[in-house]
């Protein structure tokens, strides 16, 4: 019975991964079908509605000045624009913001330094507080690591019609080439912002505001119930509530908003934890409403996979761990061998994922050498994603189980080029977490699995186990290695 239990659960987890890959394939097809229909509206604005730009900050002393300087250069009539710096900081960030806002106010910029005195509701609370004070009919939001182009508002506002509640733009990457870690993050984000967002939009499925680099119609926020802090992804939560109210979301693939990528693994993990746990919390909160709505069956299935796609990390981790006892069962009982032969269908899943990322590279990679870039980057991206399955899987499990935690910001660095200097960053506290220790042990586990495959003369899973060993090893190394800490210039 134990053997059958292991094989059954192993097969279920692999089946979920396969279905996930088919979902990515379906989005890729929709992306390609809708490619010719994606044309940005170039009609000049006739009227300039009142716009409020919100900049939620919490202890961002390294990038606050860069952000505010960038936003104050936006090309939009000054009498129709207000800027809110929503500052919940507890360090010298507030002094930097106060000095800058005073300088820009003297030059005629309508910029306000808004402080609440507490962090109740975290980012969602800051946005809600700012909205009460805002004069804008439209609300643009930028996180501290973004540097939008000067024409951001005129390009996004042209995309609104009467049914549009949100216009979201594609994230660019200020420091894509800084290191291996930034290249891998850019590779993954490019696929989300090209294939996933555009594919869902073309399929008529729900898409999401990504927390920054987008514009909301104020009435849409209010009719959807406003910002809520009961999930770590207040952006995804409000996106679903708004679309369930009938609002339309528009995605502008060609409008790019550059941002800084985290440059060390602990910061990447912090961001990944919030995204993955928040998505699971949003699924727990909103899936019931989705299934009770009058959405089409296809729309409901898309929403199910959209909100639960982070669960692939749990399935990947458990399938990987169970693959070793499954291999042992096969070695002692050859009657299970046909079940392993059925695993050939998962090659199709791998090819679907590869095609998904290849189309993304074709759409987003600038210059020559697309094939070389893909062949160099995709295998490493896949390996590191496997290595993050423990960390991300824990985040998803906590979200699905309703285990609450505070909003943990992703530290910003103002490190954009290889030659940028480094010194201590006060927001980084070097430590080795229990998760990192387990990641190191999993590396040894899968190295032992390779040895077991050789001992049992079964090489079918050796490549898989090799990728897992390398993935957990890389994540462990980047998590615990001593690093110099990034500083502003």
Write the layout of secondary structure elements.
Blueprint: H1 2-33, E1 51-57, H2 64-71, E2 81-87, H3 93-106, E3 111-114, H4 122-133, E4 138-141, H5 152-157, E5 164-173, H6 180-203, E6 214-217, H7 218-223, H8 234-244, E7 248-259, H9 265-292, H10 297-308, H11 312-332, H12 337-341, H13 345-364, H14 370-387, H15 389-401, H16 434-455, H17 462-480
Parallel strand pairs: 1-2, 1-4, 2-3, 5-7
Antiparallel strand pairs: 4-6, 5-6
Helix pairs in contact: 1-6, 1-11, 1-13, 2-3, 6-13, 6-14, 8-9, 9-10, 9-15, 11-15, 11-16, 13-14, 14-17, 16-17
Can you walk me through this structure?
- The chain is an alpha/beta fold and 489 residues long.
- The protein has 17 helices and seven strands.
- It has helices at 2-33, 64-71, 93-106, 122-133, 152-157, 180-203, 218-223, 234-244, 265-292, 297-308, 312-332, 337-341, 345-364, 370-387, 389-401, 434-455, 462-480, and strands spanning 51-57, 81-87, 111-114, 138-141, 164-173, 214-217, 248-259.
- A seven-stranded mixed β-sheet has the order 3-2-1-4-6-5-7, sandwiched between helices.
- Strand 2 (81-87), helix 3 (93-106) and strand 3 (111-114) form a beta-alpha-beta unit.
- It is globular, with a radius of gyration of 23 Å.
- The model is unreliable at 485-489 (pLDDT under 50).
